[in-house]
Amino acid sequence: MHRLLLAVSCGFALWAQTAPDVQTLVEKTYPKSTRLKEIRMPEIVRELRIADGSRVADVGCGSGELSVILAQVVGATGKVYCEDIGDDKQWGIPAARVTFKKHKVRNGEVIRGQPNDPRLPASPLDAVMIVNAYHEMPQYQAMLQHIREGLKPGGRLVIMDNRPNRTASRPRDKQTNNHVLSVDLAASEIEAAGFRIVRRDDAFLDDPDSEGAHWLIAAERP
């Protein structure tokens, strides 16, 4: 057991030394976006455990802005899959394709998923990220199952989403109609899908002035 802990510790230390400066990537790529600068992307990347050569999916990627950052983290030998189901020209698949073209992403692919299946590639992934999109997935059981199947053993699932304030005790559909979801509900759903939660931060992003808050859960496929 001590050897295993030492190996894990050494592996994390090596990753920390070789990982790119993610915040610098964000600020350089999106110098005018306060929202993206404040999203704490370095911590999300750290929880994803991705580095040069990794294969990662951004499920519910929207316009693909965060996928561009992931593409820079995994480098030319890695691969990023930007998945969404929407056709909105500002936030859907067309926007993601424009974003990839604008930032000259050559190690990425835009995927059209389905409401119950992100249609991830056949080869196992190192990690899957879902940012502010999990609450938009009414068929979350099927989505989580497909994501679990798409990850390699030990692969990471990292979800960040909107935390309810006064509606946390309401039924799930009432919460998601307001674009929020209780972290307790999400945690139980993730564990029921066969994941092991390794980190839970109920106040990952907290802005008292706007009363906006986001939680983060990092989980592993056993």
Task: Draw up the topology in text.
Blueprint: H1 2-18, H2 22-29, H3 34-37, H4 41-48, E1 55-59, H5 65-74, E2 79-84, H6 93-102, E3 108-112, E4 125-131, H7 140-150, E5 151-162, H8 172-177, H9 183-192, E6 196-207, E7 212-220
Parallel strand pairs: 1-2, 1-4, 2-3, 4-5
Antiparallel strand pairs: 5-7, 6-7
In short:
This protein is α/β, with parallel strands linked by helices and 222 residues long.
Please explain how this structure is put together.
With 222 residues, the protein is an alpha/beta fold. The chain has one domain: Rossmann fold. 38% of the residues lie in helices and 25% in strands. The protein contains nine helices and seven strands. The protein has a seven-stranded mixed sheet with strand order 3-2-1-4-5-7-6, sandwiched between helices. Helix 5 links the parallel strand 1 and strand 2. The longest helix has 17 residues. It is globular, with a radius of gyration of 17 Å. The N terminus is likely disordered.
Q: Tell me the count of domains.
A: 1
The major β-sheet equals: 7 strands, mixed
What order do the strands of the largest sheet run in, or round the barrel if closed?
Answer: 3-2-1-4-5-7-6
Distance between the termini: 17 Å
* DSSP strand tally: 7
Alpha carbon gyration radius: 17 Å
Structural class: alpha/beta
SSE order in H/E notation? Answer: HHHHEHEHEEHEHHEE
Count of alpha/pi helices: 9
CATH class: Alpha Beta
The pLDDT mean sits at 90
Helix content: 25-40%
